[in-house]
Amino acid sequence: MKILVSGSSGLVGQALIPALQTAGHEIHTLIRSKNAAVKNAHFWDPVAGVLAAQDLEGFDAVVHLAGENIAGGRWSASRMQRIRDSRIKGTALLSSTLAACSHPPKVLVSASAIGIYGDRGDETCSEDTSPGNGFLPKVAQEWEMATKPAKAAGIRVVTPRLGVVLSKNGGALQKMLPAFRLGLGGRLGNGRQYMSWIEIDDLIRLLMLLLEDPAFEGPVNCVAPHPVSNAEFTATLAAVLHRPAFCHVPAMVLRLLLGQLADEALLASTKVTSLRLKGKFEFRYAHLADALRHTLH
Predict the structure, then answer these.
(1) Exposure check for the chain: N or C terminus, fewer CB within 10 A?
(2) What CATH number belongs to 2-164+199-222?
(3) Long-range contacts of 87-92 (CB under 8 A, 24+ apart)
(4) CA angle in degrees (0–180, nearest 5) for 127-129-131
């Protein structure tokens, strides 16, 4: 297939593109710099609404991963606006432009996140669970709704709701590793909040399945089948690294340092399962210890 990918420089994009190329697909990228030296790259400015329609003609599939990093720092009003705009404006622009193509792609895989469920305590959330309350759930709802023009044009739209992606090359795990390797890791808050995660190699295989299998449409929770509490995650990571993990960061300290980000991302409990994947996808790393050992080998 001829596939267009946005967010190619991000954690998931950097892992997905080589996998797609190895599978024999022709990859083009949407980038936010006019760099003529980058092969098969097409310029866009998602917030300014700049995207040449002719650049989207002739693709079999599109994978949309672009979006401002939600954990890039304390949430100021301007950062929250960038988080929202980068997702909603970008997705709306891409979807409407694809819908207007004379030969639109067959499928659009447009990233979303399990943050749509919000802080749910011990409740298990599936794709059929209603969205939660707060900034991230609202952004995620609008993010997914922004794909409507593509769906109305007959494009199969899949919105993979990503859990915490485990990779030593970026994301949450990479940020944790320095402290844990020094034996300074520990739980956040009371440690009872659930973390729903997926190992990056499993995620890449899953995204490729969503691209290729016409049975998938709409939201799909991309999480391993065994979510864990933050305390269990902490203990497991420390054990895999053969380090102690006696430290503890109180919720109050996290709130002082990070404000709303702490409550919605680090202290929120999101226990997620996937009904759509049952019997259709086999996780190679279904258990956290196996996933961490593989990722950190």
Answers:
(1) C
(2) 3.40.50.720
(3) 87/139, 87/142, 87/143, 87/146, 88/139, 88/142, 88/143, 88/146, 89/46, 89/47, 89/49, 89/146, 90/6, 90/46, 90/47, 90/64, 90/66, 91/64, 91/143, 91/146, 91/147, 92/146, 92/149
(4) 105
Measure the CA–CA gap between 30 and 265, rounded to whole angstroms.
Answer: 28
What is the per-residue pLDDT across 160-193, written as a single tens digit (0 to 9) for each? 999 999 999 999 999 999 999 999 999 999 999 9
Domain coordinates of the chain in residue numbers? 2-164+199-222
pLDDT in tens, 286-297: 999 999 999 998
Q: Is 0.85 surpassed by the pTM of this model?
A: yes
Q: Can you say whether residue 235 is alpha, beta or left, with left for phi > 0 and alpha for psi between -120 and 50 degrees? A: alpha
The residues facing 218 across adjacent strands are: 158
> CA–CA separation, 246 vs 234, rounded Å?
10
For residue 110, which of 196, 40, 1, 210 has the smallest C-alpha distance?
A: 210
With left for phi above 0 and alpha for psi between -120 and 50, is residue 155 left, alpha or beta? Answer: beta
State how far the Cα of 181 lies from the Cα of 179, in Å rounded to an integer.
Answer: 5
In which element (H, E) is residue 272 found? strand 271-272
List, in order, residues 6 or more apart from 17 with CB less than 8 Å away: 5, 8, 27, 29
